[in-house]
Design goal:
The chain contains two helices and five strands. By secondary structure, the protein is mainly beta. The radius of gyration is 12 Å and the shape is globular.
């Protein structure tokens, strides 16, 4: 199950995703309407096989490897913010 389907199955529809990388850099991807997104992994530059879900937590999140500008990867944590 891909990230979009997993989030929809958990009851999410419209979300923000707060990303923190291994160097503590932060970024918010705002106003994502899940049923309108075709490929959430592509939108967030994620390696699909690297995604681990922690969605049953009080503060749900996922971890994954994100592609960098130089072609490498960095580990990120993406917190799901519902509004």
């Amino acid at each position: 199950m891909d990230l979009k389907e997993k989030l929809i199955s958990q009851g999410y529809d419209r979300i923000d995703i707060f990303l923190i990388d291994e160097e503590k850099n932060q970024e918010t991807i705002a106003d994502i309407t899940l049923h309108k997104v075709t490929d959430l992994e592509y939108k967030l530059y994620l390696e699909p096989d690297s995604i681990a879900y922690e969605l049953d937590e009080e503060n749900p999140y996922f971890t994954a490897n994100q592609k960098t500008e130089n072609g490498g990867y960095k580990e990120i944590k993406g917190f799901i913010l519902e509004w």
